[in-house]
Amino acid sequence: MDKTEYKAYREKMLTIPSKRGDLQLQAEESVEGPGFLLTSVEKLSALAQARSLWPVTMGLACCAIEMMATAAPRFDLSRFGWEVFRASPRHADVMLVSGRVSHKMAPIVRNVYDAMPEPKWVISMGACASSGGIFNNYAIVQGCDHIVPVDIYLPGCPPRPEMLINAMLELTRQIERRPVFKHREEIARAVEAAALKATPIHEMKGQLA
């Protein structure tokens, strides 16, 4: 993408809604749904799942303090229906990986994830969980996506409670669009094809490049 194309892209970005460039949403819309009745059931099921997320208690480092603050009265996760932090992974459907993941802790994180029932989702909270952060050494896993599949990456060191709430809201939007029946395989293939056609991040150049 040269400077002219990038400038045109930026102008286009400024003229349409924030969800305009969502590859997943575009891919989902390109696949024909199963019909009115099943679609309605899917929407009802997704709405119930999105509004009753139970996170597993998983505090690994300093980001866990911000996660705890999010459940406190000032930010109040309970108003969204997410206040039930479970001590058992068998009762939870969201894993908040909050903090750096050491190689010693990695198999435990994976065991907790495997013990969670389907459907389940993962939020990588903070720079350390997402990419190793400042700990680029032999002891820290350089991103928890080497261990578990991640649905939402939350930047920051540490991220504020408001950012975690925004990440949870984004996850609920993904769950509300989640197909339940067989055509979800077609949607997954369309999303993967759209992602493969997208411009790699390392090829994206700014106006000053």
UniProtKB/TrEMBL annotation:
Return the InterPro entries for the record: NADH_UbQ_OxRdtase-like_20kDa, NADH_UQ_OxRdtase_20Kd_su
Question: What processes in GO biological process is this protein linked to?
Answer: aerobic respiration; electron transport coupled proton transport
Query: What cofactor does this chain's UniProt record say it requires?
Result: [4Fe-4S] cluster
NAD listed as a keyword:
yes
Q: Can you state the subunit structure given in the record?
A: NDH-1 is composed of 14 different subunits. Subunits NuoB, C, D, E, F, and G constitute the peripheral sector of the complex.
Residue positions annotated to bind [4Fe-4S] cluster are 62-63, 128, 157
| Taxonomic placement | Bacteria, Bacillati, Actinomycetota, Actinomycetes, Actinomycetales
Into which family does the record put it? Belongs to the complex I 20 kDa subunit family.
Instruction: State the name under which the record lists this protein.
Output: NADH-quinone oxidoreductase subunit B
UniProt KW keywords: 4Fe-4S, Cell membrane, Iron, Iron-sulfur, Membrane, Metal-binding, NAD, Oxidoreductase, Quinone, Translocase, Transport
Describe cofactor binding as the record notes it: Binds 1 [4Fe-4S] cluster.
This protein's encoding gene: nuoB
Going by the record, the broad EC class of this enzyme is translocase
NCBIfam families for the chain: nuoB_fam, PRK06411.1
